[in-house]
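Could you please consider the sequence and fold following this short note?
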Amino acid sequence: MDRLSALRLFVRVVETGSITGAGRSLGLSSTAASKRMQDLEAELKVRLLDRTTRTVSATEAGRHLYDRMAGLLDELDGAMRQAGELQSRPTGVLRITARRSFGMLHVMPALPSFRAACPEVEIDLSLTETVEIAPTRGVDLVIRLGAPAEKSLVAHRLASAERVMCASPAYFATNPPPAGPDDLGRHDCLGYRHAFEPSVWVFETARGRREVAVSGPLRSNSGEVLRAAALDGLGLALLPTWMVAGDLKAGTLVRCLADTVCYPEGYREEIYAVHARTPLVPAKTRAFVEHLQEFLARSALL
């Protein structure tokens, strides 16, 4: 016997005073409803209803059960409706972990318009310098460098992998832009710190891949730090387009070797939004990914 369905029927019977009417409201025939009430009483080993040819009323035991169950079933129905709403419309708390630089430059600016479109969603945003981040318990979405290999995860592309070699006009005023990889030895290069290994810039040329170890006054694991140093004229930086597009447009950074494909070793991947693979992705997650993709497309970063 489906005990939950039987209890729902019992509560409806007490409220309507009719087994036939209660059964009809739940899609049951009079015979099926009567049989279900008999089965419930047999399982509980107590008479719940006093039946006459005209009326049905709760016994003392039935009234006690009704008083306990009516509120509990209302709460259960409310919880189930709320769970359904989380799936069908954007609501609830969306927990995001994002790469710090991308989060500050592009996720944060997208939040006001997202909140305007989805006011019932609250954002819990954590920023990190860690590269290999993935959704875990308590995290709905991560924004990371590179698509994960795990089949249990779904990745949505957010920004391109293009890297830009650039420096400030003040730096180039005293250091002519490099004409090719061979010129980097005479430049102050601002490199990503990868463990304790030298900073290496990779060039993809017609003659194949070439790696160049670079050095300069500063290394960091933070793209924001390298961008700030480049803006301050400390040297030549190799940074993602999504990070310096505004600076290039404003002229505060100047690009060089524009026709050359180059990138810091270990930092060539695109930016992705990643969530768990599930048949029922919450509406809040779907809505945020779609909004962020549209926001970035208007910025020409996709």
Q: What stands out?
A: The chain has a mean pLDDT of 87. Residues 204 and 242 are 20 Å apart (CA to CA).
